[in-house]
Amino acid sequence: MATILNLNNESHTLSYLNAYHCFGRSTTNVDTVIDAPEISRLHTIIEWVDEQWFIRDISSNGTWLNDKKLLKDIPQRLKLDDKIYFAKAEEHGFVIKELTPPQNMLFSVEATKNDAPQKPIILEDYNLLPSENTPEIALFYVHSKNQWYKEYIDDEAGVAYLVTDLDLLNFANQNWQLKLNTPSDNTTHLVKAKLFAHQIRYRFNLSQDEETTELTITANDEDYYLLTRSHHYLTLSLARYRDEDAKKGIDEYNQGWRLRETIVKELGEDMQFVNTHIFRAKNQLVSMLNGACDGDALIETRGKKIRFAGSSYRIYQGNKLIVNRGQEKVSLTVMHG
After folding, report:
1. Fold category of 3-98 in CATH
2. pLDDT of residue 11
3. pTM of the model
């Protein structure tokens, strides 16, 4: 994340640049306010374009990059330690301290005891907050909808709430503000072609004592070994529910749906455990497939009910195939990764 330092501020506090960051006198339309009469309402823009940071002057009184005045509305690439001055040389100055790509972040909106600002939380597509070990909120990005959502880990309904730029989130008894940095239209993010649930095949390897579960998925004729994780057992349990319903003759649309509270009781765990493992399962699949599928390609939600979304899956216990759905050919070997 790119940062700048105000050369005229004795606090020496770093400021973070948005993907499109405007400097000026306006108190409502800019990201960094410079309160001086010689500064234009919209004075200078710094933006992330084609994997680089550029500065562009749009003012009446000019912008200086180091010792040279910028040509109006002509972008100039920025470098580390560049100094920027607005309207008058050596006044209203900033220095570039970092030029990493823009990132989505959470900023603390509460002052700490020593008044020093807390470091922002850098967001991935899937986040457990405040931490993996003590989750309260799941905050995640759905590629197909181009939207961010939050879920409360202790919520038995598993409702996903839409969140947008500058929304407030509360966790660990603190308020945090969401800052979403959407790159400019000139930057294109390439991901693999969209995948749907029926295009993904699952293979679970369950130990005889049911203590460990391995999961391998196949998509577009490519195998992905998802390592041994505790949340695979939850996913396997959901696949078993679906298989049970299939054996009863329940149609595919209605197979496998279970209330979260029912799963909690059957697994002997609490709601936080189940919701956290659902989140981790979705996160691992989406990450492995590079955003080519949404989390619901693994686990679907219908009101308070959830189910395993896959229609093609096998479950091995030891060397024995105990479930085979949607796959006619059976491999004689057991995959251990």
Report:
1. Tumour Suppressor Smad4 (2.60.200)
2. 63
3. 0.81
